[in-house]
What does this fold into?
Amino acid sequence: MTNHPPLNWQEVALDTVAKRGSGHTPNKKKPEYWNGDIKWISLKDSDRLDNLYILDTVERITPAGIANSSAVLHPAGTVVLSRDAGVGKSAITKEAMAVSQHFMAWQCGPNLDNHFLYHWLQAEKAEFERIAVGSTIKTIGLPYFKHLKIVLPPLAEQERIVAVLETWNKAIEKFEHMIALRKNVKNKLMQCLLTGKIRLSGFHKPWATVKMEDIFEHVRRTTKNTDSVKSYSISSKIGFETQEEKYSRVMSGSSLKKYTHLLKGEFSYNKGNSLTYPYGCIYVFEETEGLVPFVYISFKNKGTVDSDFYKQYFLHGLLEKQLKALITSGVRGNGLLNVAVKDFFQCNVPCPTIDEQSAIAKALMVADKEIYFLERKLELLKQQKTYLLNHLITGRIRTPETMPIPKS
It folds into this structure.
C-alpha cells in the first residue's frame, strides 16, 4: 500500500477539467428579484447538502434577479461546494440552479465525472474545514480554488469508483428508511399500549389511575465522596451524558456536594425545555451511580411498579399535558421551567397490573432492540463507506476493470 497515486492517474488543476463559477445575492430590497421559479442555493440550504443531490432550495429568485446581479444559472449536474458556514458541504444539482456568493460551482468537462468530483470533495472535507479562516464565520477565499488540484484516474475508473460508493449510499439510505419506519411503528405502538387503547392478549382488568407520589419517592440524597463519582446532565435527545462529555471538562468543587446522588434505575426530570420535550424530559439512570444537578427532580420506584413501563411512558412524553398545566410562569433565568416538586408528584399516571406493565415493557423493548441493531448496522455501513471513500479516491484500493457499471 502506498501514499502515491497509481501510475495511470494524473494530478491536474481542477480548472483544466471543470469550468469553475460562483454566484451572487440579488438585491433584497427589490421584491421583483425574489420568489420566482429559479432555485437559488444559499447558506439556508446547508442541511440539504451532503446527500449527493440537491433537489430544492429555501429561496428562489426571478430572471430579473439573475439579469440584475452577478448570479448565474448553472445547468443541471453542476457540483456545488459551500466555502463559508458549513464549509466543505457539497451536492450535485438535479436541475438548473443559481447559487449565492458563498458557493463554488463546477461544470465538469468530458474527462471528469461529476459524481466522482462530488465524492472527491467529500473526501477533502476535513482539509476544507482545516484551511477555512475567520473569527466568527469560517470561510475559504476564492484564490484557493484557482489553484486547487485533483488527482484523476481514467474516466472508466472514475465511473467504477462512483458505482462502488453509490452502492454503499443506497444501502445507507435503505437502512435509514427502515429505521424511520421502525421508529414510526414503535411510536404508534407506544401511544396505544401505554394508554390502554390496545391491550395485549390475556389482559382485561381495567387500569387504575394513581398519583406519581403513590408509586415514586423523591430522591434527595447527596454524597461527600464527589471525587470518585461522575457528574451528569440530561440531554433531551440522548438522555444522561457526563458533564465531561458535554462541556469537555470535569466538574469539581463544593457545588457537587449539593448534587443529587443518583443510583441505577432511578429517574430524573430535567425541567429545561427543548424542541424534543418542550415541557422537560424524564430519563432513567442506567449507570451504577452518578451526580445530577439538584434542580432536577429525581425519584425512584417504591417497588410496587415496573420501572421499564414508566421509562417508556415518560420517553413518549405522555406526562407533557399535565406538566404544561403545572408551569406557573415562563422559563426562569437558569433556563428551567417553573414546576414545583410538590405539584410534580401530584401528576396522575395510569397503573395497570404489574404483570401487564411488564408485558408492555417487554414488547416495547423488543422494538427498541430491533431499532438498536439496525442503527448499529447503519453505523457500520457509514464507517465502511468512509473507509472506501478515502481509499478509492486516492487509489489505495483499485476497482477491477471487469467490474460492470450499473446504468443510471
Remarks:
- The mean pLDDT is 92.
- The chain has two domains: 10-152, 208-351.
- The first helix runs from residue 63 to 67.
- The first strand starts at residue 10 and ends at 13.
